[in-house]
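Email to the structure team, subject: protein-serine/threonine phosphatase model.

Hi all, the expression group asked for a predicted structure before they design truncation constructs. Nothing fancy, just the tokens so they can compare against earlier work. One-line instruction: predict protein-serine/threonine phosphatase, return tokens.
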Amino acid sequence: MELIMALKSLKEIIPLPNCRRIMTIFVKLWTLLMYVLKRNMRTVIEHQTIRYSTFELSPLSQQRLRLVRRKIFVLDLDETLIHSQRDGVGRKSLYPNMPPDFVLRVTVEHQTVRFLVHKRPHLDFFLGLVCQWFDLVVFTASLERYGMAVTDKIDNNKGFFTRRYFRHHCTLHFGTYIKDLSIINEDLSSIFILDNSPGAYMNNKDNAIPIKSWFADPSDTALLNILPMLDALRFTADVRSILSRNVHNYPAW
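Reply from the structure team: attached below.
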């Protein structure tokens, strides 16, 4: 209210053209300030959130790991690790003023298309930790050009992912792209998938961790929430002995 009164008083003192010029500059500065604050909001939130603490394994735990196979952790992309929106097209974001983490330009049907991509909160921390526990594989129902570009960005030359699979590796069944984990590894006791779409793993339900779809909510902590289970899962001989209970008895994370 005081600011409005001050602006009204300013109009009475300063000639109208100059007053409009000053107000235009003020609005631009305010817009810039809001953009910077929103751009850094996620960083502030992530620093306020408790991270997952890791400790050196005991000799007994180290011995247990040597007795079981190293697992393969398959990761979906869209609405699981990231949310991507084609510029000017698609679902309206619940947080329209949140700037994207990066922008991709991908050639689709001989046209260059811009994608605004948001990374799920804590993604970098999550990948940096779980790549020490498992062999990470990307499996997305997206086209290879798009999926490869997104994966390159979130990997950022850190070597998180050992392999990548795309839409042409899926099986189309009544409009649903099914991801068959056996094409990655025939031994289903040592492979599992994190995916927001139940249809994607309908043939491997006992090898799946459901996760809620994510659409750019900066306060989301789903990736942190599943870390304790993942930490324990690497010690089991057969992931299905644990995940079969998870799918049938528990909701998505």
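The radius of gyration is 23 Å. Strands lie at 72-75, 82-86, 102-108, 111-119, 135-139, 161-165, 171-173, 176-178, 191-195, 208-210. Ping us if the truncation boundaries need rechecking.
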